[in-house]
Design a protein that fits this description.
The chain is an alpha+beta fold. It has 2 helices and 9 strands. The strands form 2 sheets. It has a 5-stranded mixed beta sheet, with no helix packed on it. It has a 4-stranded antiparallel beta sheet with strand order 1-3-7-6, with no helix packed on it. Helix 1 packs antiparallel against helix 2. About 11% of the residues have low confidence.
């Protein structure tokens, strides 16, 4: 048994994206998708489809993530198993749009700034820091993410 995956997968928020796993196994393997150790089942956010070639015993299984959001970023595991054994492959989902980059930038900027403020004069530092936080980081972050998007399009 072998496994072949498409990783990393780059997605845009609000759109659907497909993760794909391929395995050759006889007898036919069962497929399980997980993220962070939790089994993914079909619902309004996820759908699963399979194509099986009986002549070559190749099974291609696709997990579609609907309406991708920043919460979908991470490592997904596709596992094939039958009574003879099992194989698993990892697929990393990344997001490339501006809001994701901006949320990372802002959280890092805020955590660094707050740790500096709490070691200094808290009230003055915090109010000054938060006012420049909104103007500086949003400007820098949005221009960086727009630049990244322009390179991808």
């Amino acid at each position: 048994m072998y496994i072949k995956v498409n990783s990393p997968v780059t997605a845009k928020t609000g759109q659907d994206t497909v993760l794909s796993c391929e395995s050759k196994a006889f007898p036919v393997a069962n497929v399980t998708w997980t993220k962070a150790g939790r089994v993914i089942s079909e619902d309004s956010q996820y759908s699963v489809s399979s194509v099986h070639s009986q002549s070559s015993n190749i099974l291609i299984n696709n997990l579609t993530i609907h309406n991708v959001s920043v919460f979908d970023v991470g490592i997904y595991v596709c596992s094939f198993s039958n009574y003879l054994g099992s194989v698993a492959g990892q697929i990393e989902v990344q997001i490339v749009d501006g809001m994701y980059f901006c949320s990372i930038c802002l959280s890092v900027y805020l955590s660094i700034g707050l740790s500096i403020c709490f070691s200094m004069y808290q009230f003055i530092c915090l109010s000054v820091y938060l006012s420049i936080y909104l103007s500086v980081c949003l400007t820098v972050c949005m221009s960086a993410s727009l630049s990244k998007l322009n390179k991808l399009n």
